[in-house]
């Protein structure tokens, strides 16, 4: 598994929450394509990783679903709940702080690390 794929697996729930925060509602394939487009193909979300993450977020009460028939096929749309919006903001902030700290460590500046949120 590549480093990008390992990182993606660990941060997939945050990525999903962020995309749904921006788009309001999306279906699974749309999420995979958006990640691919935004990362110029550098990160690919597989169905095997995406759907368990979506189901976990739904079980946590952060997502709601709505099924709609599009061109004769049922399509399941995911949206953030009120709690989902709150949790998205917190998780995005946590990940941003972690990434800043990681950048500092990689630059060799461990003395300027930010405290965890």
From TrEMBL:
InterPro entries xref list: Metal_resp_DNA-bind_regulator (IPR052509), Tscrpt_reg_PadR_N (IPR005149), WH-like_DNA-bd_sf (IPR036388), WH_DNA-bd_sf (IPR036390)
Protein's name in the database: PadR family transcriptional regulator
Short name of any one Pfam family annotated for the protein: PadR
Transcription regulator PadR N-terminal domain location: 16-88
Gene3D superfamilies the record matches: Winged helix-like DNA-binding domain superfamily/Winged helix DNA-binding domain
């Amino acid at each position: 598994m590549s480093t990008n794929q390992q990182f993606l697996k660990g941060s997939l729930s945050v990525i999903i929450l962020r995309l749904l925060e921006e788009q309001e509602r999306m279906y699974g394939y749309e999420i995979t394509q958006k990640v691919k487009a935004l990362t110029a193909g550098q990160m690919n979300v597989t169905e095997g990783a995406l759907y368990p993450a979506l189901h976990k977020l739904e079980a946590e009460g952060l997502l709601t679903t709505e099924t709609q028939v599009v061109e004769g096929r049922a399509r399941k749309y995911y949206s953030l709940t009120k709690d989902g919006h709150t949790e998205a903001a917190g998780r995005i902030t946590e990940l941003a702080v972690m990434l800043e700290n990681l950048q500092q460590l990689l630059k060799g500046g461990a003395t300027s690390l930010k405290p965890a949120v």
